[in-house]
Amino acid sequence: MAGYRGRDRTNGFQSNGVQDFGKNYGVDGSKLNSHAAYIGHDNKLYFGERYGYYAFYSSDFKIQTLPPQITFSGFHILDSGDSRTEKQDREFMNQGKPVQLDFNQSTFSIDFLSVDYCNPQENQQFYFLEGYDAHWRNAGKEQQAIYYSLPPNNYLFKVKAANAYGIWTEKQFPLIIRPPWWKTWWAYALYAILFLIVLFFIHRYQRERVLRMERERNKDRELAQAREIEKAYTELKATQSQLIHSEKMASLGELTAGIAHEIQNPLNFVNNFSEVNQELSEELEEELKAGKIDDAISLSKDIKENSEKISQHGKRAEAIVKSMLQHSRTSSGEKELTDINALCDEYLRLAYHGLRAKDKSFNASYKLELDESLPKLNVVPQDIGRVILNIINNAFQAVQNEKNPIISVSTKQLNEHIEIRITDNGPGIPDSIKDKIFQPFFTTKPTGQGTGLGLSLAYDIVKAHGGKLKMDTKEGEGSEFIIQLPV
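and the corresponding structure tokens:
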């Protein structure tokens, strides 16, 4: 027996570096005498034993330096009887290409060979499944790896072999066990989508159920609220009617105060001329008794002229009273041919004297610029009169603190409509409230002095007649309201 010693680390395996040459080389080491060893002059080695000796040259021993050849020879599916020994499978394994299995092919065996013909019984084989095994396994003489029920994963199967001289080599191929379709990523994506869909329908069902229960729970409350709203609406309409009536009565009060002054003048004329006619009648009687026919005729003419003046001023008083009655009574809504110039003249003077009656210190100038060719319009006179009176009253109130207050009312005929302009030289309307001036219940007057319905009603009345109510104002310079009515 002969040998050599050394340290060898190959692929993680450690050997003691001793190479034995025993019976497999024709040497029976048990008969050797360890004290009978000799090196001849020609470097030949001599080892004695009981019945003779062994003689050889050390150069006669050739150490194999080539590694063994590893070959994968077969793949068998154990639980189905399927054998994967086809040419393509062997080529895949031996070329290091992946071998893919279905999830139900997870019990299998792998056959492999390590080929080295120099003392082949000394060859060693180990295998290792990366991703599953914790350490290398000794294949022994079977040269086969068996695995049972491997979970789906990507593995790497390795085989390591060494020949009798301790030369190691390694070979490997990927092994993929596919998961079942219900465990694939797209299956999990489908599960997530289905879960979201189910969650969505559950959420919608719960939401509809809650809403339905809430509706049922609130049904009686909503009915009660509806009744309360209806009651409040009825009360609101009644309150609105009272406010509108209040606004009308307020303008009527201002009109009445003006009428008291206006009607006094024609009544004074009627009274004066009646007294004069009475005196003339007595003189006429005396002249007739005296036979003075010419003087009697002259007195008769004077009486006649005075009677005409009495009639004229009586009709004037009658017109004023009629205007007041028309303004005070509820509008019938029936249109009639109306002299717009007469309405402007009447309500301008009545508005002025109405304010004078309330405040003796109030004084303002006013002027009329009326288009005599203005045709009569088919309107509701009470309503249009209220519009004119309301705007004129606002104009007089706007100028009451000015040094030289003046109000101008003018009429003019245009192509398809007539125009009434009411202008004042008051402080004007600020830009911040221009858009609100025609809104109901908006007023710039102190609390208790206005309802805020005057201009709103005026706007609605003009609009109902097919016309327009506009405003042109500049802060610090005055305002002008323009009423346009279709001819």
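(Above: one complete record from the training split.) The chain has a mean pLDDT of 78.
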